[in-house]
Design brief:
Elements: E1 9-13, H1 26-35, E2 40-46, E3 61-65, H2 74-88, E4 93-97, H3 104-115, E5 120-124, E6 141-144, H4 147-158, E7 162-163, E8 185-189, H5 194-206, E9 212-216, H6 232-242, E10 247-250, H7 256-262, E11 265-268, H8 281-289, E12 293-296, E13 309-311, H9 316-328, H10 330-347, H11 350-365
Helix pairs in contact: 5-6, 5-9, 8-10
Organism: Streptomyces genisteinicus
Keywords: Transferase
GO molecular function, one term: transferase activity
């Protein structure tokens, strides 16, 4: 951070190893590793198993935990807590990138006893269930990814909560020309809102829209590790009922950039965001790539303003007709796509996020 001082050592505390499945928090932590300059990070990785990009991250020191799949199970969380308690004493700052969910209240009371008095910066990467806030104590300075979550945490006694927008690496997600494919592809994220997306697609199809619906449900892809995925026979039953004759279900995504490039529209219409990233990485990747996004009109998405097309939550009739109109109007598609890429560049570039966290590190390290 300063040419005449040694790089500060920062422990990245996450609920799972960074080379495991994408969950709220791990993707942000990977971005910090790769974009924040002049910091020596310590971070958690799997002892064995198939590695992800974080395993090749430059600099820093990885701390191994025993986990084949990398999912944040109870055993993995306990290992990370024990290792973090030791590593924190050798760090100048702990940057916890942890959701506030079940068990956080107990953790927030235990952490100061086991880790000492090191300063803590806590980024809350996901929307919070109000019931989870009972008995919680702030770990230190708190950061949220949306104004909605920041206001919720402030009211719960976390003090003034700063908002730092999530980021997307524009160099890794360049603009891609719209592919000339018939029928066009509508890509739906399986991180909540799967049935709502299918009901909306059914409305669009019955209104005359011709498209292929692709449900990306892969645990190590866009949806992260957010619990069990719907069984395929259930999804096929809904598709048959809704008249969706051209549907593909993906439980593993090998080429995510290629999938986004092939898509014409990203559809993400959950009823609520509890436990999910305030702005899912897939949404930012779609905007950066130049793909229009249809989102539920939820408060966590306020930073996207008019960059996306908003639709009332749990209103498949409105969503379906919005989708049909977007597919039928190329000029509107172009306008929304251009606006999305411009907003990704102006508000969600990795440099803006890295600069914000660099300033926070300086403040806490003195």
């Amino acid at each position: 951070m300063s040419a005449d001082r040694a790089e500060p050592r920062v422990l990245l505390l996450t609920c799972g190893p960074l080379d495991g499945p994408e969950t709220p928090g791990t993707e942000l932590a990977r971005e910090l590793l790769l974009t924040v300059p002049d910091v020596e990070y310590a971070w958690f990785r799997r002892w064995w198993g198939r590695a992800r990009n974080a395993g090749d991250a430059p600099g820093g020191q990885s701390v191994s935990v025993v986990s084949r799949e990398g999912a944040p199970s109870a055993a993995v969380r306990l290992q990370i807590l024990a290792a973090a308690a030791l590593s924190a004493r050798r760090a100048g700052l702990v940057h916890a990138v942890l959701p506030v969910g079940p068990g956080f209240a107990a953790f927030s009371r235990l952490w100061p006893r086991v880790a000492g008095s090191r300063p803590v910066l806590h980024t809350v990467p996901a929307a919070v269930d109000p019931a989870a806030l009972a008995g919680c104590r702030p770990l230190g300075r708190t950061v949220a990814l949306s104004e909605a979550t920041a206001q919720q945490l402030t009211k719960a006694g976390f003090g003034p909560v700063r908002v730092v927008n999530p980021s997307v690496r524009l160099d890794l997600w360049p603009v891609r020309r719209r592919q000339e494919r018939t029928p066009p592809m509508v890509l739906a994220i399986g991180d909540g809102g799967t049935e709502e997306a299918m009901l909306s697609a059914g409305v669009a199809a019955r209104a005359g829209a011709d498209f292929q619906l692709v449900l990306a449900l892969a645990e190590d892809g866009p949806g992260g590790a957010e619990g069990p995925r719907p069984p395929e026979d259930l999804l096929r039953g809904i598709a048959a009922r809704e008249g969706l004759l051209d549907m593909e279900v993906l439980r593993h995504v090998g080429d995510l950039p290629g999938l986004l490039a092939a898509a014409d529209v990203l559809l993400y219409v959950p009823r609520r965001m509890t436990g999910r990233a305030d702005v899912p990485p897939m949404v930012l990747r779609a905007l950066a790539t130049g793909r229009p996004v249809i989102l539920s009109d939820l408060p966590q998405f306020s930073a996207l303003s008019d960059t996306v097309l908003r639709t009332p939550a749990a209103d498949p009739h409105h969503t379906g007709h919005l989708l049909r109109q977007l597919l039928d109007r190329p000029w509107w598609w172009d306008r929304v796509a251009e606006r999305g890429r411009a907003t990704a560049d102006a508000r969600f570039g990795a440099g803006r996020s890295a600069a914000a966290y660099t300033r926070l590190y300086r403040e806490l390290l003195g």
